[in-house]
């Protein structure tokens, strides 16, 4: 599924399936995804690549997580549940997310490689290159992880 626009085609097929199953919540979430991808490709004036599509979906998940935080503060469990259900549907179209243990192993591996190239143990001042190394490893392995979690693990590893 690496040709441009393949993700949009897959989403369209899923919408039809959800509509036939009379699953209104799934249909609505899929339409949101399709619209976000469509808007991004219009903005780009070309079909989205796989990476661009995944980036768009990842930002949608980030928006949902921010909304969940706000709705939790506002004591709106109904809206929290709706946003969480949308996240589950969006995540179906992304590569598997790395769990915390796997992410910690990947971070230490990336920092060890960075230490080898720098010639010394990376410090807090070198968080930028450290983050780039970790993100590069994630992309090379076709994995994804929450940016906030990556940042926290990198900071903790550099501090320790």
Automatic annotation (TrEMBL):
One Pfam family linked to the record: YqeY
The molecular function terms in GO held by this entry are:
carbon-nitrogen ligase activity, with glutamine as amido-N-donor
Q: Which InterPro entries match?
A: Asn/Gln_tRNA_amidoTrase-B-like, GatB_Yqey_C_2, YqeY/Aim41, YqeY/Aim41_N
Q: Which PANTHER family match?
A: ALTERED INHERITANCE OF MITOCHONDRIA PROTEIN 41, MITOCHONDRIAL
**What name goes with this protein?**
GatB/Yqey domain protein
Organism equals Candidatus Sulfuritelmatomonas gaucii
